[in-house]
Write a structure and sequence with these properties.
Layout lengths: L1 E2 L5 E5 L8 H16 L4 H13 L4 H9 L3 H10 L10 H10 L3 E6 L3 H11 L7 E4 H4 L7 H9 L4 E6 L7 H5 L3 E5 L22 E3 L6 E2 L1
Parallel strand pairs: 1-8, 2-3, 2-5, 3-4, 5-6, 6-7
Helix pairs in contact: 1-2, 1-4
Length: about 220
């Protein structure tokens, strides 16, 4: 699909499972926790943690009970570790093309300030982003319209486009506000896979793409 961009265009991205896979963050955190418990033989523990997660078990309860670790400390490591994560193919190229056309780039994401900003830093894109909206910092989560109006207030009288993945919450507000919306189809690794429950007009993006390689900035 073609996206027309000029100096009065703001392209806004969700973070988790939109520009990288959140499962990669989870695996990074589990590796960090396993290494902190048994640095020499961490892989079997990591494998067990990941299997427990995939089975919808309480991973932190298992690690806490088995290794006598405080659950809150494990959660803190999960949320504050320096993640090893990578952008989806085509994201950097898309952002570079937006900037070349004088467009603005925003992020709207739910989560903790420390965690989400660490992800952006690890992905190496902080200096490319003109406005970051994180739910913990503003006190509201998607689909609250406030999260999107902050972008409008920062860049008034513009055309806004939101690229995201989660039908349950991502597109309700921008659709109501008259934004253009694009949904990135689950590549099979998304953390949330209940999108089939939200296939009606209120929740759906105006267009879908399978990857950033489907997007052409013109």
């Amino acid at each position: 699909m073609d996206i027309k961009v000029d100096a009065s265009t703001v392209i806004v991205f969700d973070l988790d499972d939109t520009i990288y896979n959140e499962m990669e963050y989870l695996r990074s955190a589990y590796s960090e926790i396993a290494k902190s418990i048994d640095a020499a033989h961490w892989r079997p523990l990591f494998a067990r943690m990941y299997s427990l997660f995939r089975s919808k078990a309480d991973v932190f309860e298992f690690v806490s009970a088995t290794y006598h670790k405080d659950k809150s400390e494990l959660l803190n490591t999960y949320r504050t570790h320096i993640p090893s994560i990578h952008l989806f193919k085509g994201v950097l190229e898309t952002m570079a093309q937006i900037k070349a056309k004088k467009g603005k780039i925003g992020i709207i994401t739910d989560g903790r300030k420390t965690t989400q900003r660490a992800k952006l830093k690890a992905l190496g894109i902080t200096d490319r982003i003109d406005k970051i909206v994180i739910s913990e910092e503003i006190g509201s989560e998607k689909p609250d319209e406030r999260n999107y109006r902050i972008i409008e207030e920062a860049f008034p009288d513009c055309t806004y486009l939101y690229i995201a993945d989660n039908l349950r919450k991502d597109f309700i507000a921008p659709n109501k506000l008259g934004w253009k919306t694009v949904g990135l189809i689950d590549n099979g690794l998304n953390m949330h896979c209940d999108g089939h429950n939200y296939f009606d007009k209120r929740y759906m993006p105006q267009q879908f793409v399978t990857s950033f390689e489907d997007i052409y900035v013109v």
